[in-house]
Design a protein that fits this description.
Helix content is 45%, strand content 18%. It is of the alpha+beta class. A hairpin with a 2-residue loop joins strand 1 and strand 2. The chain has 14 helices and ten strands. The chain has three domains: 200 residues, Alpha-Beta Complex (3-hydroxy-3-methylglutaryl-coenzyme A Reductase, Chain A, domain 2), CATH 3.90.770.10; 106 residues, 2-Layer Sandwich (Alpha-Beta Plaits), CATH 3.30.70.420; 54 residues, no CATH class. The structure holds nicotinamide-adenine-dinucleotide. The site of nicotinamide-adenine-dinucleotide has 22 residues, from helix 6.
């Protein structure tokens, strides 16, 4: 019998069960999964089994808070949106903007068909002097034959109303490759595996037709046909607050949007704020966050200049906010299909289809953007951010339960945000009421921001 791996670098490590991997880590690294930070990776056996079938060499789970952004009115329906995120203030900001927009009619959304694209790339030896543009046209003439190869694979998807939606070949002179794009309607799935299977199936025939060598065959995450969008219309007077009045604030929002639309250095943060919402919904539903983010950023740069994903305009006495971007979110398949938390998240949303989920994501991204841009051009975001930071600091220096909000308040009042100060204040608090010291949290109480208004950030 082979000896049991002694470390995680041993190739046999991946063949162990999740519990055996933990035992190796305990031995090799001195990690105790019931202690300290690693305690967070503890979970019921069922969740560990789930982790073990989701990825390779699983040793635990990485819990990320799951919250609910409430107060959305989307196409006339009141809705709460589940969000999984490690970043404070994101959920509060989305809820704050959603409530403001809901008072004036909410979001109107739309979605395009869930069409994804697969790619096959063909290369040729240097002594092949055939006209490759003509070769691409020839490949295009073989469309019916190629589509027929896909028919049996696509049969179930065609029965669902999806399936084959066309193909187009092109010669790419810069990389000297011939590229075939195949478009498929993947209904409620992300479609990665179906598309990859289809592209693989086409390889031999494409190689034969072109007499070239297949370089690679895979889906593109660009998803530029699978768009979804959202819009809101807010009367200017609704923007007024404190010293800031509607029209000047709307003009500042417009100016800030124009900056993001023209200066990529600003656009990156502006769009990151939008993705704070969209990625959190994608993660809550166990969607492929990287695919969605890649598609969004490629879309932002579609004219060769990286721009804002949202836009704003003043129309009569209203501020109009709008967004449209690729949102390849799935409601079946991949992790979405069997992760119980994702299933629960979809239930909270009323079990939408993939297009419905994409429309919620568009509204959420726009809400997040509006919260950020109005805070930035109004009172700024830092005060709220530091108050939230105080909550984390309180936890980090050992405050628990009711101590956390109290220490958070005192750190914020002091205005000094470092561990030494936090520790000193906690010491003072405990000497004021020694019985409360070191109480473990049983209440589930967590630090709260003073108000959602203070917690609108996009950075
Ligand atoms: P999947 O392989 O689980 O396929 C979806 C399944 O759902 C199919 O079997 C389909 O028949 C079934 N289905 C049931 N009802 C459906 C409906 N109404 N609409 C559509 N399908 C329905 O999932 P997938 O979407 O093919 O692939 C997603 C996974 O692939 C993700 O985990 C993703 O991370 C991964 N992936 C991504 C890439 C990439 O982004 N480049 C590459 C490879 C794999």
């Amino acid at each position: 019998m082979k000896p049991r791996p002694q470390s995680m670098d041993d190739p046999g490590f991946r063949k162990l069960t999740i519990r055996q991997r933990r035992a190796v880590l305990a031995e090799d690294q001195g990690l105790d999964f019931s202690q300290g930070d690693l305690n967070a990776t503890q979970a019921r056996d069922e969740i560990l089994d789930l982790a073990d079938v989701m990825v390779e060499t699983a040793i635990g789970i990485m819990p990320v808070p799951l919250g609910i952004a409430r107060g959305f009115l989307i196409d006339g329906r009141q809705i709460s949106i589940p969000m999984a995120t490690e970043e404070p203030s994101v959920i509060a900001a989305a809820s704050f903007a959603a409530a403001q927009i809901a008072r004036y009619g909410g979001f109107t959304t739309w979605g395009h068909k869930p069409i994804m694209t697969g790619q096959v790339y063909v290369v040729f030896p240097p002594d092949d002097h055939r006209n490759k543009e003509t070769l691409a046209e020839e490949l295009n003439r073989h469309e019916p034959e190629l589509a027929k190869i896909l028919q049996p694979i696509l049969e179930p998807m065609t029965r669902r109303g999806g399936g084959y939606r066309g193909m187009i070949a092109a010669w790419l002179p810069e990389s000297e490759t011939l590229r075939l794009h195949v478009h498929l309607d993947v209904r409620d799935a992300m479609g990665a595996n179906l598309i990859n299977t289809c592209m693989e199936a086409l390889k031999p025939r494409i190689a034969a037709i072109t007499r070239g060598e297949i370089l690679m065959a895979i889906l593109t995450n660009r998803a530029d046909q699978r768009l979804a969008g959202a819009r809101f219309v807010l009367p200017l007077h609704a923007l007024s607050r404190g010293d800031f009045h509607g029209m000047p604030l709307a003009q500042r929002i417009l100016r800030a949007w124009r900056v993001a639309d023209t200066d990529p250095a600003r656009a990156v943060t502006h769009n990151k704020g939008i993705m704070n919402g969209i990625s959190a919904l994608a993660l809550a539903t166990a969607n492929d966050t990287r695919g969605i983010e890649a598609a969004a950023h490629a879309w932002a740069a579609r004219d060769g200049h990286y721009r804002s994903l949202s836009s704003y305009r003043i129309d009569h006495e209203n501020l109009v906010g709008e967004i449209e971007l690729p949102l390849p979110l799935a409601t079946v398949g991949g992790g979405v299909g069997f992760h119980p938390a994702a299933q629960a998240a979809l239930k909270i949303l009323g079990n939408p289809d993939a297009q419905g989920l994409a429309r919620f994501a568009a509204a959420l991204g726009l809400a997040q953007n509006f919260a950020a841009i109005s805070a930035l051009t109004g009172e700024g975001i830092q005060a709220g951010h530091m108050r939230l930071h105080a909550g984390r600091l309180a936890f980090a220096v050992g405050a628990r339960g009711p101590e956390i909000p109290e220490l958070q308040r005192r750190i914020a009042r002091e205005g000094v945000f470092n561990r030494a100060t936090a520790q000193a204040i906690l010491g003072e608090m405990r000497s004021e009421s020694p019985s409360a010291s070191g109480q473990p949290s049983t209440s589930g109480q967590t630090p709260k921001s003073d108000s959602a208004k203070q917690s609108q950030e996009d950075g």
